[in-house]
Amino acid sequence: MRFDARELSWAIELAEVLLAHFEDRERGGFYFTADDHEALISRPKSFGDESLPAGNAIAARALLQLGYLLGETRYLAAAERTLRAAWPVLQRYPEGHASMLQALEDYLDPPRILVLRGASAAIETWREKLDTGFAPRRWTLAVPAGEPDLPEALAGKPARPGGEPVAYICRGLECSAPIDSLAQLLQELDEGHGEGHGEGHGAHEDAHGG
Questions:
Q1: pTM confidence score
Q2: C-alpha 166, offset from chain centre
Q3: Of the candidates 153, 60, 58, 59, the residue with the CA atom closest to the CA atom of residue 113
Q4: Please, where in the chain does CATH 3.40.30 lie?
Q5: 112-190, which class in CATH?
Q6: Over the stretch 84-122, which tens digit does the pLDDT of each residue have?
């Protein structure tokens, strides 16, 4: 995907509003209405899919994606609390909670994030090559060199001098050393660099408090 600083800033703003005004801080998950909404008999908080995917599942997945990308543990912790809150219904009726199961997969088995840095034309060539084929558990983010005001987690992954492209393979909160050759990067991916289950959080039982 192409990097857009405005979209990233907007996503962070939405995440902060979500945590500040919609989260059930005692039991986990997110209410359908904000804390400054008119008083209701009951504030709904659903985990199951209906005609649309469950809002809590979308929130959990978005927080996981932002948390992994930015190294923001607050987002990851909020997603974990949501999954813990949903765990009883996931056990009883998993077929009605497909979107929440996808969020659980992202938590237990974090997708790989490829961060490309360098001159725009160069990293676009790399991105096009990496986006060929089928890799649903991999995201590629191309961030041009010289992009101002980057979050620390992205600013700390610099391009090479002169704008030469470089890649970082990240999984969970861990990233590889910089890779400055497309051939080497493709080889690392073919060899399953960073593959495994439960990396970044440690164990499947974390989702249900085992």
A1: 0.84
A2: 21
A3: 153
A4: 112-190
A5: alpha beta
A6: 999 999 999 999 999 999 999 999 999 999 999 999 999
